[in-house]
Design a protein that fits this description.
Order of helices and strands of chain A: EEEEEEEEEE
Radius of gyration of chain A: 14 Å
Largest sheet of chain A: 6 strands, mixed
Strand content of chain A: over 45%
Shape of chain B: globular
Radius of gyration of chain B: 13 Å
Strand content of chain B: over 45%
Largest sheet of chain B: 7 strands, mixed
Helix content of chain A: under 10%
Oligomer: heterodimer
Distance between the termini of chain A: 36 Å
């Protein structure tokens, strides 16, 4: 039978507005964090990463903020476009430099044209 | 660069049969690859770490005799689901990283397994 999955948190944003996707991580020893974008039926796509010695990093239209005090990570997408519609996962590296990462639960971003 | 491929992209099999999924790093060498499973509307769950030339390391709760992993070369890892059952139906995704230059993992496109 069909498995019952979790209901993903959904963020609906008007095209052209900025999006902010939040993530709480669990391990205070994590020193490397990554945001991935996953479109339906595809593998995760790397967006941006940040190390624990930084609190902000900017890419093209994206910014990641890290607050180690409260173990919080956010992804900001500027001028959101329909092509940004996807599920976004944060991931943390809990073994520093070994590449093994743990994924968060994910947030579905819906861009309204 | 940093492209990871998987084959097949979709597979449907009968209960009790075995299915092999290939993961290849196309333009880099990967001493370590990772295998994940993802159920609908859920996150990726790490199943095992595949090490070139040695045995895979399995996460707690993952049966190593059911999910056979072989990392035969620096560009190829295979996952074989043995005696598949309907509950093994899932989206299987592999990843690999370029070492030592980066810790970033690059993911394959995934394989949709449906067991009838």
């Amino acid at each position: 039978g069909e498995s019952v999955g979790l209901h993903l948190p959904t963020l609906s944003v008007q095209e052209g507005d900025n999006s902010i996707i939040n993530c709480a991580y669990s391990n205070s020893a994590s020193d490397y964090f990554i945001w991935y974008k996953q479109e339906s039926g595809k593998g995760p796509q790397f967006i941006i990463d940040i190390r624990s010695n930084m609190d902000k990093r900017q890419g093209q239209r994206v910014t990641v903020l890290l607050n180690k005090t409260v173990k919080h990570l956010s992804l900001q997408i500027a001028a959101t476009q329909p092509g940004d519609s996807a599920v976004y996962f944060c991931a943390e590296n809990v073994e520093g430099g070994y590449q093994k990462v743990t994924f968060g639960t994910g947030t579905k971003l819906q861009v309204i044209p | 660069g940093a492209v990871v491929s998987q084959h097949p992209s979709r597979v449907i099999c009968k209960s009790g049969t075995s299915v092999k999924i290939e993961c290849r790093s196309l333009d880099f060498q990967a001493t370590t690859m990772f295998w994940y499973r993802q159920f609908p509307k859920q996150s990726l769950m790490l199943m095992a770490t595949s090490n070139e030339g040695s045995k895979a390391t399995y996460e707690q709760g993952v049966e190593k005799d059911k999910f056979l992993i072989n990392h035969a070369s620096l560009t190829l890892s295979t996952l074989t689901v043995t005696s598949a059952h309907p509950e093994d139906s899932s989206f299987y995704i592999c990843s690999a990283g370029i070492r030592p230059s980066t810790d970033t993992q690059y993911f394959g496109p995934g394989t949709r397994l449906t067991v009838l």
